[in-house]
Amino acid sequence: MNVKAANLWYNIRTMKTTLLAFAVAFTSAITLAKGQGNDKSKNWPIEDYVLDNVLVTQLDCGGWGKRVDKRKPFDEKKREKFLKNKGDADSATIDNNATTTEIRYLVRYHGAKNDSASLEAANRGIDWLLASQLANGGWPQFPARTKGYWTQITFNDNAMRNVLELMKDVADGEDDFAVFDSVRREKCRKALEKGIECVLKCQIKVDGKPTVWCQQHDRETLEPVNARAYELASFCSQESAGIVQFFMTLDNPSPEIKASVEGAVEWFRKTRLPDGKWARFYDFKDCEPLFCDRDGVPRKDLADVSKERQKGYSWYNKKGADVERLYKKWKYKK
Predict the structure, then answer these.
(1) CB-based burial of residue 211 (10 Å sphere; 0-12 exposed, 13-18 middle, 19+ buried)?
(2) What band does 8 get if pLDDT is binned at 50, 70 and 90?
(3) In terms of pTM, does the model score above 0.85?
(4) Residue 200: pLDDT above 60?
(5) What is the rounded end-to-end Cα distance, in angstroms, of the chain?
(6) Half-sphere exposure of 61 toward its Cβ, with a 13 Å CA cutoff?
(7) Is the sign of the CA dihedral 263, 164, 195, 286 positive or negative?
(8) Closest CA to 205 of 260, 271, 280
């Protein structure tokens, strides 16, 4: 299929899959899923050109960079650019759904085509994630970088959740994930256990009771830390909702996980705003909504933030409502 024909096919396909994608997203919000809670590869077609895009953009280290749409065919110029940059390990990340999405696609592709290239690339991706895990069980946003907020343990945009769900699916070895060898599956199981332990240790406690998490936690002390200038250390509703939802998919949860979920659900109930939404950030002192601009100065009112940041960031969400729906089913099952 040439580039022009493939682009036409892609546009038609996109129109047909929009409603299906919406239905899948809606269903996942109200049911207890077995992992794959944030799999962005579900609408990637099982086509050779998509596989080629995934293989071309995989870095030599095994991971992938972010913000590259692989659903459209690459022209030769774009393809050559990625081939020349394969040694850029600093770009490999788990941010913005990167790496975990590509691995999930490769697993689906292999399940459909039973080829060797997709499995080899998936194995390399898994191995990179395993090697990137910190000794305490956390994953930094950009594992190869040594400075900046990229080096910290990252819950922002479901980074840690995505990796933990993938580790679980590989360890469980169900459906297409049965393709992974027993040694790699066991490594993923151990990484999952270490990761969960890290998440539990990161959970912020107030008067000895577990609440929620910050967007990022220090890679050594596990304390909440700032990320970008307008992302101050705080209670973070959006990121915490994803973690709690993941915990509620685990079979036979430990007493520690149960206590973690109960504490987080109580926090969401207490911090719900009158309009049914949650602020993304709440300050540590009074647990009140917190806003910030690029100057790093905390504010109590979004109106005091520049128009650029007001519109360019997600300051409110309804993730707590999803947590509550899942919690009712989880509490009944546990």
Answers:
(1) buried
(2) very low
(3) yes
(4) yes
(5) 51
(6) 20
(7) negative
(8) 260
